[in-house]
Amino acid sequence: MADQQLWLLRHGEAVPHGSKDDFHRELTPRGERQSLAAGQALARLGVEFAACYASPLVRAQGTAEHACRALGIEPVAHDEVGMGFDVGVARELLAAHGDGDKLLVVGHNPSFEQVVADLTGARIDFKKGAVAAAKVQGTRGELLVLLRPRELESLALSS
User: Fold this and answer.
1) Sheet (strand 75-77) strand order
2) With 0-12 CB in 10 A as exposed, 13-18 as middle and 19+ as buried, what is 97?
3) Which residues contact 140 (CB under 8 A, 6 or more apart)?
4) Could you tell me the pTM of the whole model?
5) Number of helical H runs and strand E runs in the chain
6) CA nearest to 149, candidates 12, 7, 8, 5
7) How confident is the model at residue 46 (pLDDT cuts 50, 70, 90)?
8) Phi and psi dihedrals of 149, rounded to 5?
């Protein structure tokens, strides 16, 4: 059985809680920059994704659209990435793809931190606009990378 990779991108900075209902909270200009930088950094690293699944919440959709533009893929809204995302949903998404595939999932905390812990045993601080990747083989996972927004921005700007 070959490895697959699950790449998680937490949505960028969004307008404050209470400014509108949670579903419709959109990205701030900073959140848009974080999202663009994430996509550009992943493209510079040469990561090619079989698919991108995104939470239907507005801030995650915006993040996915900005990031995927640089990656040349179209994000697909997936309800369970927005509500109820857990290691079971992550495994279902991976199972729908082939050996060696890399998937990008754009969504939220605290579910992202929990999925990383469940897959790899790693406890991480998953910042808004950050990326974590895990290699998954069967029931085992290994944390490959954790890139914070500042690191993604540096990668995006490097030549």
Assistant:
1) 75-77, 51-54, 102-107, 4-10, 131-137, 140-147
2) middle
3) none
4) 0.96
5) 6, 6
6) 12
7) very high
8) -55, -40
The encoded tokens of residue 54 equal 């995104």
Asked if the model's pLDDT at residue 21 lies above 80, the reply is yes
CATH of domain 4-136+144-157: 3.40.50.1240
Domain borders along the chain are 4-136+144-157
59 falls in which pLDDT band (50, 70, 90)? very high
Place 41 in a pLDDT band, splitting at 50, 70 and 90.
very high
Segment 58-79 mean pLDDT = 97
Residues whose CB falls within 8 Å of the CB of residue 83, separated by 6 or more in sequence, listed in order: none
Q: Name residue 105's beta-bridge partners.
A: 8, 53
CA separation for the pair 83, 73 (Å, rounded): 23
Instruction: Categorise residue 8: left if φ over 0, alpha if ψ from -120 to 50, beta otherwise.
Output: beta
Residue 60 C-alpha from the chain's centroid: 9
* Tokens coding 24: 């419709």
